[in-house]
Every structure is written in structure tokens, then in C-alpha cells.
Amino acid sequence: MPMKSYRAAINEAMAGEMRRDSSVIVMGEDVSGGTGAPGEDDAWGGPLGVTKGLHTEFGPTRVLDTPIAEGGFIGAAAGAAVTGMRPIVDLMFVDFLGVCFDAIYNQAGKFRYMFGGKAETPLVVRTMYGAGLRAASQHSQVLYSLFTHVPGVKVVVPSNPYDAKGLMIQSIRDNDPVVFFEHKAMYDEEADVPDEAYTVPFGEANVVREGEDVTIVAIGKMVHLANEAADNLANDGISCTVIDPRTVSPLDEETILEEVEATGRLVVVDESHPRCSMAADISSIVAQKAFKSLKAAIEKVTAPHCPVPFAPELEDLYIPKVEDVEAAVRRTMA
Amino acid sequence: MQLSRDELLKAYTTMRTIREFEERLHVEFATGEIPGFVHLYAGEEASGVGVCMHLDDRDRIASTHRGHGHCIAKGCDVDGMMAEIYGRKDGLCAGKGGSMHIADLDKGMMGANGIVGGGPPLICGAGLAAKQLGTGGVAIAFVGDGGSNQGTTFESLNLASVWNLPCIFVIENNGYAESTSSKWSIACDDAADRASGFNMPGVVIDGHDFFAVYEAAGEAIKRAREGGGPSLLECKLNRYYGHFEGDAQTYRGPDEVKKLRESRDCLAMFRERVTEAGLLDASDLDAIDSEAEAQIDGAVAKAKVAPPPTAADLLTDVYVSY
């Protein structure tokens, strides 16, 4: 199987679906780049190059640059989705949701229900999240829990290139609005990705490894930390299960509960703030539904309750680390 | 409007300081020592300085991601800014904000901003506060051509007019929102055309020409101070670098920046104008050039060795301390 980057896997998924289905369009700020300018077309392909080449292959009617106007063009994507198109719209940094949240949570997310089941809204909102690039408070946040809170919106957080391609294809083919979270520090990460189209279904967690002592549920980029922690802990005879939910809405509660029932211990690793987070949500589900199987208090590894700081020394403290996961696992074993 | 010798010297000093600051950041960023993203203002100095020359500490400005020039023009401490960009504890924002969030409320600088279109609504609030508190202050939103298309900007223009606020919206149209041409993204000929729809004056200015900006801004600010309501100024200008440092800029024309530097440089235009009119000597300006260079050398040297924040700083200032 060919090795492909997370970036290339997402690009390939979009290109393949655009070839297959003429209703799939891409829109957003600089998704092509250079529109109206004297130099090259397709100059950017998005700020980090994820849509590069789509304009060249599919042209400006299917790859639409927009003015800087998220409230307008994300609302337009919702409107186009409910009237026959399958837009993939780029919110760029998830931090920008503040200027356009209405279109996603009050409009697209509620059409099906409010309209008595008559609406299909096949909308994909692509967005970048995550700290580590010294991008400071308004370009680094991890906000998937905000969307997860809203019924009607599906939330996808791929942790690797294989899942990214399969989940993107599923997102495009899905008839509900999907917010697709791409960790901006993972774009160059490579893995085996088949050339052909395939889907990864929503609501099916990936059990990355099976162990006997502790279940670690980790989201997005945090799956890698969990795996590394599990490797280190194995040297000390502590055996961990690692679960990657892949989609946080819908959430595969069944797999999480089964695995926690087997080990009796849970650590949740989530790059977001701790309050009202996926870590809090998964902990509450397990506390309620697998209470009797728990041998220790649930541990959460999250960022602290503060904005993402700029200074590298502070940002490094802010982001959860492998040692934090190991320490949390050890606390459940104490 | 006639400027005194001191005012002319101040204008040139501020513009030159901004230029040195940005040209030096361009060099230092390439070494990898500066964290994160920086967006440089080089080429646009006449706009920020031409506007802010009319302001004092009671007046407020809100800036954009391209905010260094506005900070300097509004009187922010250059050493503190440089330290902030290096992520140091003694930076203007204690190292927590960085280039995109530099602010100094004591100087009336309400922040660079990571959100395009974030500033104009804040400026309506600052204008409202100035009006209700009777400070006599005005509030200025600097907005890029990209930000001029945001809904928040349109809503703010309307609100400022409806409430008759002492606000001025300065659209710095440098031709590109990231990589997208403003000739394409702005549906009317000039962004300033939109002002009439909000019942306020709208003026197009050559943003390379300090004197043109100074004069137009002076009229708008005087009107706002006297209760005459908001205005929109569109400064047509150019940026010498990419959207951010590292932008390959393949969307620009061949030699576009080189030609602009040769023909439309705001510092060169200022120098030519004042020396030909006999207002300042070339030697005055040369001295300022040297001083600015030395000042930025000092700021960079200090920032490089300044201590970073410590673990104890991570959770401070999330909320008020009791």
C-alpha cells in the first residue's frame, strides 16, 4: 500500500468524490488562492495546501474562492447543501467559528429535525484545530466539544491518514452536516493509504490495541500520545487498551463501555480544556453505565482551563504530554 | 493642514521605526528564532502613522493580524513589542499574546487581532464609551480589504452611523486578502463606495502618501470629535511581504514588489516631498534612519536574551485575581 500524508489522504478523498459526484463542490477562503490576482491560479490550495490541485482539475465553478466572510459563505454552503449540492466548505481555523456558528448549529444542524425529517443537508465543514504551532490564543483551540453538544451535527476527528481518507469520503456521502477536524500538526504524518475509495463508518471506534489493565480513550492527535504511553507502560508490566473513537458525534459508547468493563479502569486523553469536554462527557457516560466495573476513579488528561498561550515555554506546558498519560494510568493502578 | 517641523520629524521617525521593525523581523523570522506566525506591515506605514498622528491616549484603535505598525504608530513601547513577539515574560502581553495579539490598553491600543473583522465592533463599543463618558476621544478600526467584506464590518458601519458614534473605519486595501485579489473580492469599485449606504462620508486615499492620509484622517477625526459621526477612509496601498512570513506569493505579478518599492515607497515619497519643499534636510532624515536602526538593534538584542514566562504564569490572568 502506498504511503501518503494526512494532507494527501484528505485531498485524495475530496478529489475522488468530486470525480464521482458532480454535486460535490469545495468553497472557502483561498481554497484555490490567487483569484483575481496577476500571478498563479491555485496559488495556495488552502493555507496549508490541503485543497491544492483541486482548482486545476475541477476549475473555478467547483472550487470556489470566497471573500473573507465566513458568516456568508458557510451559511451559503448550508443553503446549497439543503438544495441539492454537496459542499465541502473550509472554515480554516476552528477558532473562526465565532463569526459563523449560527449557520452550523441553528441552521444546518437543525434542518432535518425542524423540517419534520424532510431536509437532507450533506454539508462538510473542514476545519483545523490544535495547539503546538505557536499560533496563540485565536488559532490553536480544540473546539470539537462545542459542536458535539449540538444535536444534528456530526463531528469527526481522524487521528491518522488512513482514517482521514475513509472518514472524509463518508463525510461527503453522509446526508447530515459534518464538522471534520484536522489537526494542523499532523498534515505531514504518513501512513499506508489505499488508492481506491473506501469509507470508515461513523460511530465505530477503532480499538488500536488491546490490554488487560487500563482502557485509554484518546481523541485525534492524542491517540499517538496514548500509544506511546502504552508502549512505555508495557515495559513496566502495565497493559493498556487504547481506543480511538474516530467520531465523537456519533460516539461509539458500546465499544468504550465493553473495553472499560474488561479492564475496570479508564483514562481519557483530550487536547481540549477540561470543562464540558469530550473527556468530561466520556467520563460521565462510563461513570453512569459502567460504574460497577470500575476499580479506580476515572482519570482525565486534558489541557488546563486557560486560553492557549503564545510563549513556547507556556504552550509546551499547556499541551498534554506522554508523561501525563503515563502518570494518569499509574494513578488508576495505585 | 500645515505640519510643524517637530511633527514632520515625528511622522518620519514613526514610519521609519515601523519599517525597521518589520524589515528586521523579516530577517529574524527566517532564522527560526521567532515562534508562530508574523504578518508584516512594511509598505503600509503612511496609513497607520497618517491616522495616528492625530490621536492621543484617550483615543482608541483596534488593529488586525497585521498589527505591528498600528502599535508603533499608537505609541506602544517598541522593546515591549519585540519582547512579546519573542514570547518573553516582559513583553507587552507577558508573552501570552504574541504578534497577533499585541495590545496596550494604556496607550489606547486595543489589540492586534487574530480574527478578521474582530476589530470594528469593538471600536463601536469604544466609540460609545468615549461618547457616554465624555472623554472627547475617538475610536478607529483598522481593517484590511479582506476584513472589509466581513459581516461584522458591515454591521459596525451601520451601528456607528445609527448611534452617531465618534468612529472612523480605515480600510487598508493592500490588494490581497491572503492570496485573493481585492479587485475580485470587493464587489464595488472601491470599498469606500459602501460608506454612502451607511450614510457616512467615504474617501479613497493614496495610502502611500502620508500627507494625503494625514489630511483626510484629520478631517474625519475632527468631525467625529465634534459629534459629526463616523467616516470611512479607504487607503490604497501595498504590502512588501506575503500574507504571513513564509508565503511564497505566487499569486503576485512578476517583479510586482520590486516595482512598488522603486515607485510607491511611502518613506521615499515623504523624503522627496519634505526635502524638495525645504521643510527638512536630508541629513535630518538620515539621522532618524540611523537612530531607528539602532533602536531596533537594541530591541532585538534585548528580546533575544529576555527570560521566558515560567510554569507559574500558565494559569494566571484567566480571571480577575482577588
**Low-confidence residue ranges of chain B:** none
Strand content of chain A: 15-25%
Number of domains of chain A: 2
CATH superfamily of the largest domain in chain A: Thiamin diphosphate (ThDP)-binding fold, Pyr/PP domains
Major β-sheet profile of chain A: 7 strands, mixed
Distance between the termini of chain A: 43 Å
Brief summary:
The complex is a heterodimer of chains A (334) and B (322). With 334 residues, chain A is α/β, with parallel strands linked by helices.
Topology (SSEs and partners):
The complex is a heterodimer of chains A (334) and B (322).
Chain A: E1 3-5, H1 6-20, E2 24-28, H2 54-58, E3 63-65, H3 70-81, E4 86-93, H4 101-114, E5 124-129, H5 144-148, E6 154-156, H6 161-173, E7 178-183, E8 190-192, E9 206-209, E10 214-218, H7 222-234, E11 240-244, E12 247-249, H8 253-263, E13 266-269, H9 278-289, E14 299-301, H10 312-318, H11 322-333
Parallel strand pairs in A: 2-3, 2-4, 4-5, 5-7, 6-7, 10-11, 10-13, 13-14
Antiparallel strand pairs in A: 1-8, 6-12, 9-11
Helix pairs in contact in A: 1-6, 3-4, 7-11, 8-9
Chain B: H1 5-30, H2 45-52, E1 60-62, H3 68-73, H4 78-85, H5 119-133, E2 139-144, H6 151-162, E3 167-173, E4 176-177, E5 180-181, H7 182-185, E6 202-206, H8 210-225, E7 231-236, H9 256-263, H10 266-276, H11 282-305
Parallel strand pairs in B: 1-2, 2-3, 3-7, 6-7
Antiparallel strand pairs in B: 4-5
Defining traits:
heterodimer; A: 334 residues; alpha/beta; Rossmann fold; 2 domains; 5-stranded mixed sheet; 11 helices; B: 322 residues; 5-stranded parallel sheet; two-stranded antiparallel ribbon
How would you describe the overall organization of this protein?
The complex is a heterodimer of chains A (334) and B (322). Chain A is an alpha/beta fold. Chain A folds into two domains: 3-192, Thiamin diphosphate (ThDP)-binding fold, Pyr/PP domains (Rossmann fold), CATH 3.40.50; 206-333, Rossmann fold (3-Layer(aba) Sandwich), CATH 3.40.50.920. Chain A is 36% helix and 18% strand. Chain A is built from eleven helices and 14 strands. Chain A has helices spanning 6-20, 54-58, 70-81, 101-114, 144-148, 161-173, 222-234, 253-263, 278-289, 312-318, 322-333; strands spanning 3-5, 24-28, 63-65, 86-93, 124-129, 154-156, 178-183, 190-192, 206-209, 214-218, 240-244, 247-249, 266-269, 299-301. In chain A, the strands form three sheets. Chain A has a seven-stranded mixed beta sheet, sandwiched between helices. A five-stranded mixed beta sheet of chain A has the order 9-11-10-13-14, sandwiched between helices. In chain A, strands 1-8 form a two-stranded antiparallel ribbon. In chain A, helix 4 links the parallel strand 4 and strand 5 (124-129). Chain A is globular and about 65 Å long. The termini of chain A are far apart. Chain B is of the alpha/beta class. Chain B has one domain: Rossmann fold (3-Layer(aba) Sandwich). Chain B contains eleven helices and seven strands. In chain B, a hairpin with a 2-residue loop joins strand 4 and strand 5 (180-181). In chain B, helix 1 (5-30) crosses helix 2. The N and C termini of chain B lie far apart (50 Å). The mean pLDDT of chain B is 97. The chains are: A alpha/beta (334), B alpha/beta (322).
